[in-house]
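Structure first, sequence second, as always.
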């Protein structure tokens, strides 16, 4: 490569080569256009001038022969009809001469010869044809024939010779045009071949230049990059070729240096992460052991703690029954406090056990009809509704996948809360409904109870949170925490809708069945809303302060319903792992 062009960029080199090739091709194209124009001119002259001139010259000779033959025939016969070819020949001669003169504008020599033919022809007519015709008409055929001598024949032969010379000149002009056509055609072919050679040579130069300036530098750069990719991060990448490739090599080498530095940091970070992972592994093992100990403690507490509590409660109740009225009023009050405390401790233990079982023990998900679940809930809460003169209704509810005992416990908790936290002297009304929202069912439990202030909506799903004293509303404060855990275990979320004008509305979501989601996708016009309007009512029941009766856990006592401090604003949570089976008790 020359020193002057060593700093040229690849773009400049390619553009220069293409510019040179373009100039050459444009020049060749201009020359080809000029040669083609000349070739068309010669072809036009051959086809439209010399060709018709040859035909006209032959017709001119025939017209002159017709005139000479007609004159001799008239001299023999004296019949005026024999002069018809003569007169037609004269007219044809004039037409042919006029037509040939129009074609001979670019051939002055041939036009001059045509003038000599006209002059000789006119002399022959004046000296031979006209006298013969006049003499024959006036003196008879013998006198006319006498004028047709050898001299007159030689004079016509001169006319014929002039026409033949004219034809020879026209033929020479035609041959010249044909030669010009061949010459320009050959030149045009040569120019086309030259253009093709320019394209081929330019293509070869371009290929060779690209191989030298692009392929080889890129191949060398790729080999160096592969060496780095194989792990030799300390190999310096050097470029070659045009300035662009040199800059590219510098950029790649800078990237290599940055990657090498990052890899060093990654190695250090990996070592730190491995150390942290080992610590986390130890902590996870410790947590696993701790969880096993806690589970063992929960089961021990469920049996070993309840046994002495049952004894305390039983003997206190015996004291209460046997010595009622025999001791003073303060002793009766103390015994009542002891009985109530033992029973509350049993309920707390049972509620904690119920809460801990959710998500651990599993009975397997099945398709659950919530309408049937509401029937079971109505049966469980019947006594409480009769006592409180409460009414329970529900709209058509969907079928979802879940554990029926847990869902029954969930809805029983919500309905029992609605009955318990009713307004004084107002019959409780509880309504359960459902509507589709996207891929979920949103289920609502609404009542006309005392409601909840928005500032407390975040508290009521926290375990053991109470907004009222146990004297005003009995319970352990764990019911809605159990409800929240059941909902999250089924992949939903639960919250309190604080926008309702009266009472309380607790809403929770459950995933819809895949078949329902596919059906909704197939019918984009399906509107979201409640699943139906058919309501099912249950009888009214007992006071909400009474616990709803269900299968009591190990202690054998009924659990109390959580306080009405249970209406948080919307909460989002992921389902917890594990399952709980066999829980049908309603926390009252």
């Amino acid at each position: 490569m020359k020193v002057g062009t060593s700093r040229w960029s690849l773009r400049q080199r390619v553009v220069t080569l293409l510019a040179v090739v373009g100039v050459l091709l444009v020049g060749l194209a201009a020359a080809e256009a000029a040669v083609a124009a000349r070739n068309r001119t010669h072809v036009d002259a051959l086809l439209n001038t010399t060709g018709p001139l040859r035909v006209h010259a032959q017709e001119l000779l025939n017209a002159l022969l017709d005139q000479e033959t007609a004159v001799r025939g008239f001299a023999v016969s004296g019949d005026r009809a024999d002069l018809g070819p003569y007169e037609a020949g004269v007219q044809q001669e004039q037409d042919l001469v006029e037509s040939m003169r129009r074609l001979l504008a670019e051939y002055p020599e041939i036009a001059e010869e045509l003038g000599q033919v006209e002059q000789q022809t006119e002399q022959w007519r004046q000296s031979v044809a006209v006298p013969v015709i006049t003499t024959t008409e006036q003196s008879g055929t013998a006198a006319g024939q006498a004028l047709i001598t050898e001299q007159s024949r030689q004079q016509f032969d001169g006319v014929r010779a002039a026409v033949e010379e004219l034809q020879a000149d026209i033929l020479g002009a035609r041959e010249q045009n044909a030669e010009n056509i061949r010459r320009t055609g050959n030149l045009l072919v040569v120019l086309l071949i030259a253009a093709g050679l320019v394209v081929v040579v330019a293509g070869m130069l371009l290929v060779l230049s690209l191989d030298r300036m692009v392929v080889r530098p890129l191949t060398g750069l790729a080999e160096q990059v592969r060496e780095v990719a194989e792990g030799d991060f300390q190999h310096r990448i050097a470029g070659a070729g045009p300035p662009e490739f040199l800059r590219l090599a510098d950029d790649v080498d800078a990237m290599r240096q940055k990657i090498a530095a990052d890899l060093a940091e990654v190695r250090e970070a990996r070592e730190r992460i491995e150390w942290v992972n080992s610590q986390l592994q130890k902590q996870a093992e410790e947590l696993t052991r701790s969880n096993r100990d806690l589970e063992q403690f929960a089961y021990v507490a469920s049996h070993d703690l309840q046994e002495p509590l049952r004894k305390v409660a039983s003997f206190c109740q015996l004291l209460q029954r046997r010595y009622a009225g025999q001791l003073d009023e303060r002793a009766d009050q103390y015994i009542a406090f002891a009985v109530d405390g033992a029973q509350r401790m049993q309920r707390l233990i049972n509620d904690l056990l119920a809460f801990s079982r959710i998500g651990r023990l599993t009975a397997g998900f099945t398709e659950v009809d919530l309408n049937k679940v509401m029937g079971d809930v109505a049966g469980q809460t019947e006594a409480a509704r009769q006592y409180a003169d409460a009414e329970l209704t529900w709209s058509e509810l969907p079928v979802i996948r879940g554990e029926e005992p847990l869902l029954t416990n969930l809805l029983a908790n919500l309905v029992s809360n609605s009955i318990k936290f009713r307004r004084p002297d107002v019959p409780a009304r509880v309504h359960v409904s459902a509507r589709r929202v996207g891929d979920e069912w949103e289920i609502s439990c609404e009542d006309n109870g005392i409601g909840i202030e928005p500032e407390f909506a975040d508290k009521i799903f926290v375990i053991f949170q109470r907004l009222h004293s146990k004297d005003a509303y009995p319970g352990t404060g764990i019911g809605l925490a159990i409800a929240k855990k059941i909902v999250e275990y089924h992949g939903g979320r639960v919250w309190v809708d604080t926008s309702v004008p009266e009472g309380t509305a607790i809403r929770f979501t459950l995933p819809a069945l895949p078949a329902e989601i596919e059906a909704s996708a197939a019918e984009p016009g399906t509107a979201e809303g409640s699943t139906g309007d058919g309501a099912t009512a249950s009888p009214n029941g007992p006071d909400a302060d009474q616990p709803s009766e269900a299968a009591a856990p190990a202690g054998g006592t009924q659990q109390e319903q959580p306080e009405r401090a249970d209406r948080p604003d919307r909460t989002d949570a992921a389902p917890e792992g594990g399952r709980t089976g066999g829980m049908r008790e309603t926390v009252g």
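Margin note: The longest strand covers residues 429-437.
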